[in-house]
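Risk register update: the risk of archive-format incompatibility is retired. Evidence:
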Amino acid sequence: MPPLRPIALLVTAGLMAGCAVGPDYQRPDAPLSDHYLGQRAVEPHSASTPSSLVAWWENFNDPVLTTLITQALQQNLDLAQASARVTQARAGLGAANAALLPSADIGAQAARAYQSVETPLGQVLNSTPGYDRYGNAYEVNLEAGWEIDVFGGLRRGREAALAEYQASAAGFTATRLAIAAQTADIYITLRGLQARLDIANQQVNTRRVLLEKVQLLYSKGLAATYQVRQAEGELSQVQASVPVLQSGLEAAMNSMDVLLGTPPGTHRTQLAHEGSIPVAPPLNALGTPAELLRRRPDLIVAERRLAASNARIGEAIAEYYPKFSLSALLGSATAVSGGNLFTNGASQSSGVLGLRWRLFDFGRINAQIDQAKGQEAEALAAYRQSVLRATEDVENALSSLVNRQAQTTTLTGGEAALTQARQSSFTAYEKGTASLIDVLHADETLLQTSDARAQARTESARAAVAVFKSLGGGWQPEESRSVAAR
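Archived output:
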């Protein structure tokens, strides 16, 4: 039997079997409950119409919010960076695919040389009758090579590259959802600050009117000096809160501009027009915790990274085994004239079956395998931790939404009662049946309650955004499969 035949049989058998060393990936189990703990507290108050998860921001019925999120998803620079990372991962996948295929290249050269007759070789050749010191050489070759993936190391590498590309695509989606949620969160915060600033300005006007009344009474000898000074101090206290709220409002506007990929101040005129705080929409059709595994892109990222690390183990184990390669050359070469190329006499060819085996490097291979297994164990723990944190995010968001809505309802009723109480106390003060302290106390309590109500309504809407984000709203799970298939 020819010496190459056993190797050829081994190569053929390996290719036919299509084996790949290393563990085959299996998605790990993630035992989750059938429903969320806070689901029962939210859904009884929800409308019958299912809330949209795909374009969840439309549930707030705020055209400005919808416009801003649309612009952010088109212009945000973090999103542009994430898109570039997907392009890089796609290129890595293309390289891994190419490694499984034969490669070929064409080379050609033409040379002209002039031989010295002073060298030993030149002296010998010069003694030959008819020697020409000028020499020409022409050569054209087609070379091809192919590493035969008998034990699947290259295929495991392709599996890892595919999983990393899918993780990158899911990471882009995760960034997209984070940008949408951040835009909504800043917008709601901005509207909340505008509402609080309006409350503070109204209170400033109220305190100013009160001060004028006290000064009028003082001029008639019906009020003491300390009452004037007390009214002035209370007015200054409310006025001092306005710059703080204004500073926060301007910072929120600047954050919105940067989020939209524009210089600070670009959208200030648009955002300066006051609008109401968006109302948290009713929530239903929340799904189950198990659906988060395919709904939340950050969990898809963690799972795909786990699959990639699993494939890297097989890629490392493949280094234990020999690697076979085929190479061939087909060309034409002549030293006479270019016109003799591609003739029978100028043709040349070769074929090589190569073998490479790291026989005395098993210690390093063992270390690489252990490293790959350690990375896989780390990725598994990270995936399980991501699942737990995802359910925690949903539970916390649902709890915050329920409690903030309850707080808003309570404070709204309290604000209405305190408004009436303040009017009554001021009327009584004008009639002399109540003191200025009573009026100032009523003002202070009303201001605190109105401000707290505005904050509670803001936090309620922000909690709704957090619910949509924690549920992975803002995309269709089918989008990741279509992106990965391209």
